[in-house]
Amino acid sequence: MDQKIEPQRYRDDRARLARYSYASRALLIFLTLLASYLLPPFDASAKADAFTAPWADALVRWDVFHFAQIARGGYVHEHQWAFFPGVPWLLRATALSQREFLLGGTVLVLLCDPTLVMYDLSLLVLGNRDAALLSALLSLLPSSPMTLRLVPYAEPFYTYLSYRGMLFCERRQWIYATVSFALAGLFRSNGLSLAGFLVWGMLIRPFVEGRARTISITTVLKCALLAIIVFAPFVYHQYTGYRAFCTTSVPPKWCRNTIPLIYSHVQSTYWNVGFLRYWMLQQLPNFVIAAPPLLAILSFASWHLRRTLPAQILPSPPPGHQPFLSPALTPHALHATFMALILLFASHTQIALRLVAAMPFTYWAAAWLMVQSPKIGWAWVTWSVGWGALSVLLWVAFLPPA
């Protein structure tokens, strides 16, 4: 916690954020129920699956099918390895019956609220109570509220655990950070990138802050070991795929690759993921709807990095912008830039609407816009509210993007 903030004010801020978070979830549930009553799903088969009770009809869309099928029957088909085991494990562990496969997962999503963690992390990174509170409030306006705040998707768990790990990194609690990042890696492949925060905090930040001129071999080895632990869920998932398909009498062609990764094969073969593969004219609308968060991230990252790299903070930052020049922001700026470029050039770009919520830098960028360019900042807020509401309607109607 920022040492300058009064304990009572800190408690009041957290209580206020908790109330706003509960209210936003209640509003989301109400809008979902209303939309499901008024809008029939485009694909009526969403109501026909045997693993859903009637109350869950509006939740069974897109990846939820895959997660629930894996939870019920395990990994069987190649394409299922695109989905990491975290959500299926949780659904299986909390299933009340074959007809109540989603209730436990939905409750866990409601419990994994990252808002207060976002506030604590922002206090440490930005070092300013007003900026931290603004950032946490803006995080209540995700661009994909269904997949972050209600539906048993990978994003709620990945986001919560990522934030936790980043908070532990700021506190230099490396073991706890590693555990959080490794658990996050059970839900999404981009959990691999979270190891970068350990590398920055243990090996690079001491130089940036002038606390060290050399790094001991012990620290390097410890960092390497912790990074390996973060990589372990990804490696395990690839191993299960290799064992399922590459030890048969007639293994598929991808098993003969130099590094036989089933995840890369599945993404390329079934989802056509690859460098510039999504850059087609018919995908232009998806680039347009993903533009606001990606532009905010890249603009703020560029602004911050041009003023703080190489590892030298401006001696007299402009008044009012000091929180956004904090050196603690730099690893987040680098990480967010890396992820944004992948989303832009080597992914289905519209999934940025789901994934950017897992990066607190998204909401620091929004807060920066509110301070630096209030008109643009309010435009971003207006877009977040409008698109968030529309995305709920699209979800219930079983229409893309998802």
Automatic annotation (TrEMBL):
GO terms for biological process: GPI anchor biosynthetic process. It is found in: Endoplasmic reticulum membrane. It is an enzyme of class 2 (transferase). The chain crosses the membrane at residues 20-39, 131-154, 174-203, 215-236, 284-303, 324-345, 351-371, 378-398. Pfam families: Mannosyl_trans2. GO terms for molecular function: alpha-1,6-mannosyltransferase activity; GPI mannosyltransferase activity. One of its GO terms (cellular component) is mannosyltransferase complex. Keywords: Endoplasmic reticulum, Glycosyltransferase, GPI-anchor biosynthesis, Membrane, Transferase, Transmembrane, Transmembrane helix. Pathway: Glycolipid biosynthesis; glycosylphosphatidylinositol-anchor biosynthesis. Its EC number is 2.4.1.-. It comes from the Eukaryota. The keyword Transferase applies. It is a multi-pass membrane protein. Signal peptide: none annotated. Belongs to the PIGV family. Mannosyltransferase involved in glycosylphosphatidylinositol-anchor biosynthesis. This is GPI mannosyltransferase 2.
